């Protein structure tokens, strides 16, 4: 078994590529030995003196060294631990326990779960993968689907991606009544978790658009019992949400394209696109629909 290594920028993290799948989907991170107890491999790596953190992705194991530790000393026992684990055929993450008489939350015996898994595999994952995202099924309980969503390069804000995923599942699997997202953290070039900033609302463009909405646009749409909120500004896109009487209105597209979009782009010339992320019909117009993936 040959394991390739790659040093991450900064020198404190190194990736180890075992040449086989590490995680089938998603990612995992362990910042201390207690958390690492969830994974046999992570727990074994923390037994190597000088290891301060472990993370798993689809095809690599990332190890963060403690301050003052030397990779020349750390690499041999880490390589040995990883090799021993995979050669022995041990799981990276344990299979969830299922008590006698209970059915696993994600067993194919449940037709709703099977339908959800089919939509995830055939539509959602391929669409998300094109933007560097990953989606994994975590569980199902009486209409509520739990999903793990990871990604840092989406062309739209995370909330917009979530709305589209929810609309798709509700539309294609009517038994689904809600989605609970378990967020995976954004990750740096080394695969380590970082805090993701969303400064769009405080940018000059964001401030100008919010002032426009408050002073000119919302007073006009208030007569219809609705209002429009700015959710985020990223690069040259403004993301808005139609609320109140505007949500689900059959004329909302006309209102957006012929009114709101024109006003925003005129007031803020750097904005070239206005994106509506409103959940107008909770599945009647999903984003990841047939022909779009």
Q: Can you walk me through this structure?
A:
This protein has helices spanning 33-36, 40-46, 71-87, 111-129, 158-172, 204-221, 252-267, and strands at 4-7, 13-17, 28-30, 51-56, 61-65, 134-141, 144-150, 178-183, 186-187, 193-194, 226-234, 237-244, 273-276. The protein has 293 residues and is an alpha+beta fold. The chain has three domains: 4-87, 2-Layer Sandwich (Ribosomal Protein S8, Chain: A, domain 1); 111-194, Fe-S cluster assembly (FSCA) (GMP Synthetase, Chain A, domain 3, 2-Layer Sandwich); 200-276, 2-Layer Sandwich (GMP Synthetase, Chain A, domain 3), CATH 3.30.300.130. A five-stranded antiparallel β-sheet has the order 1-2-5-4-3. Strands 6-7-8 form a three-stranded mixed β-sheet, covered by helices on one side. β11 (226-234) and β12 form a beta hairpin. α4 (111-129) runs antiparallel to α5 (158-172) and α6 (204-221) packs across α7 (252-267).
Q: How are the strands of the biggest sheet laid out side by side?
A: 1-2-5-4-3
- Uncertain runs are 95-108, 281-293
| Topology, number of strands | 13
**How much is the average pLDDT?**
75
CATH topology of the largest domain: Ribosomal Protein S8, Chain: A, domain 1
Q: Count structural domains.
A: 3
What is the CATH level 1 assignment of the largest domain?
A: Alpha Beta
- Number of helical stretches of at least 4 residues: 7
The main pleated sheet reads as:
5 strands, antiparallel
Structural class computed from helices and strand pairing: alpha+beta
Annotated CATH homologous superfamily of the largest domain: Scaffold protein Nfu/NifU, N-terminal domain
Could you tell me the radius of gyration in angstroms? 23 Å
Terminal Cα separation, in Å?
Answer: 37 Å
Question: Which outline best applies?
Answer: globular
């Amino acid at each position: 078994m040959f394991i390739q290594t790659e040093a991450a920028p900064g020198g404190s993290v190194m990736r180890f590529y075992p040449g086989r799948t590490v995680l089938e989907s998603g990612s995992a991170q362990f910042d201390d030995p207690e958390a690492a107890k969830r994974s046999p491999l992570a727990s074994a790596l923390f037994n190597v003196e000088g290891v301060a953190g472990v993370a798993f992705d689809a095809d690599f194991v990332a190890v963060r060294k403690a301050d003052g530790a030397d990779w020349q000393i750390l690499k041999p026992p880490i390589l040995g631990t990883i090799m021993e684990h995979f050669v022995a055929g041990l799981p990276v993450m344990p299979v969830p326990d299922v008590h006698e008489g209970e059915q696993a939350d994600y067993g194919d015996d449940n037709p709703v779960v099977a339908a959800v898994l089919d939509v995830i595999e055939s539509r959602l994952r391929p669409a998300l993968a094109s933007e560097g995202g990953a989606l994994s099924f975590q569980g199902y309980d009486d209409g509520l689907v739990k999903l793990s969503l990871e990604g840092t390069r989406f062309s739209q804000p995370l909330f917009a991606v979530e709305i589209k995923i929810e609309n798709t599942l509700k539309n294609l699997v009517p038994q689904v009544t809600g989605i609970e997202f378990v967020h995976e953290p954004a990750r740096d070039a080394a695969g380590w978790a970082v805090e993701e900033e969303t400064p769009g609302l405080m940018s000059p463009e964001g401030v100008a658009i919010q002032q426009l909405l408050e002073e000119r646009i919302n007073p006009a749409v208030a007569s219809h019992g609705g209002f429009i909120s700015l959710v985020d500004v990223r690069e040259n896109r403004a993301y808005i949400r139609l609320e109140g009487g505007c949500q689900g209105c059959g004329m909302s597209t006309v209102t957006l394209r012929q009114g709101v979009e024109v006003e925003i782009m005129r007031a803020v010339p750097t904005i070239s696109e206005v994106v509506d992320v409103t959940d107008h019909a909770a599945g009647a117009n999903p984003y990841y629909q047939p022909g779009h993936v």
